[in-house]
Amino acid sequence: MKFYVWTISVLLALSTLSCTSKSDKKAESAEPEETFDIDLADISMRDPFILADPETQSYYIPANGGKNIKMYKSKDLKKWKDLGVVFQPKEDFWGKTDFWAPDLYIYDGKYYLFVTFSSTEGIRGTSVLVADKADGPYEPLVNTPLTPADWMALDGALYVDDEGTPWHIYCHEWLQVKDGEVIAQKLTKDLKTTDGEPVVLFKASQAPWTPDGKEDGNYVTDAPIINKMSDGKLIMIWSSFGKDGKYNIGVCYSEDGVLGPWIHGEESLVDNNGGHGMLFKDFEGNMRISYHSPNDGAPARIIISPVKYENGKFTIVK
């Protein structure tokens, strides 16, 4: 009887030891909890684009890292984590400078960055980078610009229409055409090349809030991006300089798809010398705008504000 009791005790002890060992190994192998210790107000950044990723229930902002692209991550839009470099170009990559305005999209199960680069030959354009996860690493989808090879173009954005057709929305820069243009161009389904000719949607001088009859004829177009509203109307926000000479955001509307016509709002949207905006829905379903301010002088900061769309009109809630 004593032997029986001793045997049971030993077996129980060995079982407990085995469970404890497995538990310890599981605890050791578990990933450490993420730390988000950077305040939004402490991040200096231009052209902030925020992706709310349903896969990770996290927010991501890609950023110009000088000669690379970095990424920030957050759970609440207030505290952020620096994920470091997510795209480091190889020697043979066509884009050598700028690394401007990285926009991040989910399309067909992958993550795509639309980024403005310039070559050593002085040509500027959008290139597309791709990754399996929001935090990368990213690689060039194709090692060429998506915009016309002889254009000065920038600030490419992706819009997918109701038929599933991807469109590239971008700017033909004022440096080449003086009166900056907003362009739409169809893309192939794989986003690797264009499917048709570029179409001019409008010129910067056509907006009522830009200056009248500038002597030098130079009008900037920046950051056009399209969103579909609940009533089916398309809105586009984009940036230029207003009548007061300050950087600003304008809005225009189309009731007939990407090619318009686009009808401009009479007034610009911000009063803090800010711009290059984009719209996103947070995880509570609220639409917000993200943009940088100021545009010159002090370091640019990320502004996140609620927006309102009522009776066919889009405004920023101040």
Description of the molecule:
The protein is mainly beta. It has a single domain (38-316), classed as Glycosyl hydrolase domain, family 43 (Tachylectin-2, Chain A, 5 Propeller), CATH 2.115.10. It has two helices and 21 strands. It has helices spanning 2-29, 174-177; strands at residues 38-39, 51-53, 58-64, 69-74, 79-87, 97-107, 110-118, 124-131, 139-140, 153-160, 166-172, 181-186, 199-203, 222-228, 234-241, 247-254, 263-264, 275-281, 287-293, 301-310, 313-316. The strands form five sheets. A five-stranded antiparallel beta sheet has the order 1-5-4-3-2, with no helix packed on it. Strands 6-7-8-9 form a four-stranded antiparallel beta sheet, with no helix packed on it. Strands 10-11-12-13 form a four-stranded antiparallel beta sheet. Strand 16 and strand 17 (263-264) form a beta hairpin. The protein is globular and about 60 Å long. The model is unreliable at 1-29 (pLDDT under 50).
Would you spell out the secondary-structure blueprint of this structure?
Blueprint: H1 2-29, E1 38-39, E2 51-53, E3 58-64, E4 69-74, E5 79-87, E6 97-107, E7 110-118, E8 124-131, E9 139-140, E10 153-160, E11 166-172, H2 174-177, E12 181-186, E13 199-203, E14 222-228, E15 234-241, E16 247-254, E17 263-264, E18 275-281, E19 287-293, E20 301-310, E21 313-316
Antiparallel strand pairs: 1-5, 2-3, 3-4, 4-5, 6-7, 7-8, 8-9, 10-11, 11-12, 12-13, 14-15, 15-16, 16-17, 18-19, 19-20, 20-21
